[in-house]
Amino acid sequence: xxxxxxxxxxxxxxxxxxxxxxxxxxxxxxxxxxxxxxxxxxxxxxxxxxxxxxxxxxxxxxxxxxxxxxxxxxxxxxxxxxxxxxxxxxxxxxxxxxxxxxxxxxxxxxxxxxxxxxxxxxxxxxxxxxxxxxxxxxxxxxxxxxxxxxxxxxxxxxxxxxxxxxxxxxxxxxxxxxxxxxxxxxxxxxxxxxxxxxxxxxxxxxxxxxxxxxxxxxxxxxxxxxxxxxxxxxxxxxxxxxxxxxxxxxxxxxxxxxxxxxxxxxxxxxxxxxxxxxxxxxxxxxxxxxxxxxxxxxxxxxxxxxxxxxxxxxxxxxxxxxxxxxxxxxxxxxxxxxxxxxxxxxxxxxxxxxxxxxxxxxxxxxxxxxxxxxxxxxxxx
Length: 381
Description:
Helix content is about 25%, strand content about 35%. It has seven helices and 18 strands. The two termini are about 20 Å apart. The model has no long low-confidence stretch (mean pLDDT about 95).
């Protein structure tokens, strides 16, 4: 793994670069504006100029998935959509109202790969094609029904239909989901109920498996949208490639407190393993929140929980290529930033304002990790 930091006018880029050669290299970049006094347009242009210069470094890097974190999505999202039309890019994009806590108006996470062909499908998915698998990405899906419960049901059922069109199913091929919930303290219960209902219909139970997920506060530009969803599935997976992560010495199964997601999922290929850690907070293996009111201790416990999940997949924080940190209280930013910079000086991460689904959780993080694998009995990437 190579970690780098690049400084461009008004923008810092944190990079994780995983070299795999013929099986496809992977880049994760986190672009953060470090000029909070600049206007949104100035910040937007500076960020995309830095992105352009990064892409010129790696001409073989194909953009796959990007997520914009915006401070005022009602006024800022249109500029993102206009830019995408202007540049003609077709990769999957997620646009979320989660203010970057360094004081800027936007930040960007983007993943790129080499040795792939990426093409948008008519049903809204992005297909990333490799010889043995097609990776399917979805960004900023929404439904226009009335409640967070019905929107979640509609999102998952529509996504299952989209996957069926690619000879996949939600139950067998979906690796990861993200639910961004407007006013999570009020609307998250509907997300839980809607997801539980759909999973029950398709046969996902505590006796089978669930799907790795993050459920976190996040706004859509349309205030009528309570829930938006990002998702990732892989066509061509066989059961032997999938490992669900539990870390029972640190965490309890989520169904014990009424929700239905996996703590993490590892997908194994002949030469690599990719690990997707769900939103993880300061919780013990009885489902209890630890260190209520203490952001520093909650951060430490959260790290321990994530380490336990990574270890089950034979990874550590040294394999992490990207992380997003969610805070409930903007006043905790300086302390959390100092803790992260001390422990993870090279890791590409960003910290955004996004309350977690339990009010007593002050912090949550999610991450992606990659490690080398040597198993010729598995299909290649």
